[in-house]
Design goal:
Distance between the termini: 33 Å
Oligomer: single chain
Order of helices and strands: HHEHHEHEHEHEHEHHEEEHEH
Mean pLDDT: 89
Shape: globular
Helix content: 40-55%
């Protein structure tokens, strides 16, 4: 990355995150213990422990303020291997201009990181599909997707129409050697307004072409969906069609009956979602990249490092789960 001007080097980063050494050191010590224990027990899970990823939305405050040139090396130091993007921009004051996709790719390569996917607004697929596929190929990512619901028309017909649209985009992605995916929130697990016995997610799954449209299961939101609209098992979706789920969002939740969702989003390992049962129940028939996400991480105290501290502690907990 020598051709990219570094206006914020490692010493700057350490100064910016002063006051958190004890917390990060504690996480590192815990990580050593977890890693040592894991080494004695071969992984029998379908989520490889050596490919743990991060959704950059979790640390969006650091990406914006410090830039990719600081954040990506720090994520590599923590141990993350796969990067899922939530936009390709940073504060223009860092370089005096916006960073380019090729510069981001160079930073990934220089730090031994792989771009695994990206969240793109669904409108971008409608208006600039080939441009988004171009960006994915420049960054070297095999998947490109959206975290938007397939549609806001919560009827069977609405979800069938959305599936038709995704099939067109997915075929275009396949033609470029890419996999298009949709990331769920809780609402996709609601029942159709016109057919209250039909779950919207089932309509989308049934009517999208498995050759061209894939799913990224956000496990937290799937359990929120189960809490709000009972009658399904999140793990069963993966177990029944394992190869349609190349990516997981591994986000933890702490049960809270005062929250309409049933859970509060917390650092991984600090909640009580049944992750051990989930990873056992999905079966070993396909490999799924586990990606840590915590929507609330930028609010983590003390700040700094805030979200980066949450990223390190959550990586340690994920490594322990998958060891």
């Amino acid at each position: 990355m020598s051709h990219i001007r570094k206006s914020f080097d490692r010493r700057d980063f350490l100064r910016a995150t002063a006051g958190t050494t004890v917390a990060l050191a504690a996480a590192s010590v815990t990580g050593v213990a977890a890693t040592s224990a894991a080494a004695a027990t071969p992984s029998k899970l379908s989520i490889p422990k050596d490919r743990i990823g991060i959704q950059l939305y979790s640390i969006r405050d650091k990406v914006s303020a410090l830039g990719f040139g600081v954040v990506l090396p720090e994520l590599a130091r923590i141990g993350y291997k796969e990067i899922e993007f939530a936009g390709y921009t940073q504060n223009t004051s860092i370089l005096g201009r916006q960073i380019t996709l090729q510069e981001i790719r160079t930073l990934l390569d220089d730090n031994g990181l792989t771009a695994v996917g990206s969240h793109v607004g669904i409108g971008n697929f409608r208006s600039n599909l080939q441009g988004e596929l171009d960006a994915a190929q420049i960054l070297g990512m095999p998947h490109v997707g959206t975290a938007n619901a397939p549609t806001n028309v919560n009827t069977v017909a609405g979800y069938r129409a959305a599936a038709d649209e995704f099939n067109v985009w997915g075929a275009a992605a396949t033609a470029r050697g890419l996999k298009l995916y949709q990331h769920n929130h809780a609402g996709e697990f609601a029942f159709a307004t016109d057919q209250p016995s039909v779950r919207l997610y089932d309509v989308f799954l049934k009517n999208t072409d498995p050759r061209h449209v894939y799913l990224e299961l956000d496990i937290y939101w799937a359990y929120v969906g189960q809490y709000r609209w009972p009658g399904f098992d999140p793990a069963a979706y993966v177990r029944n069609q394992p190869y349609r789920y190349p990516l997981f969002h591994m986000k933890d939740g702490d049960a809270n009956s005062a929250n309409a969702n049933g859970f509060d989003i917390v650092e991984f390992g600090a909640g009580d979602l049944p992750y051990e049962k989930f990873v056992r129940d999905i079966g070993p028939r396909a490999s799924h990249v586990g990606i840590w996400e915590q929507d609330t991480a930028p609010n983590t105290q003390p700040n700094p490092p805030g979200s980066l501290g949450a990223a390190e502690r959550s990586f340690t907990a994920l490594k322990g789960l998958l060891g």
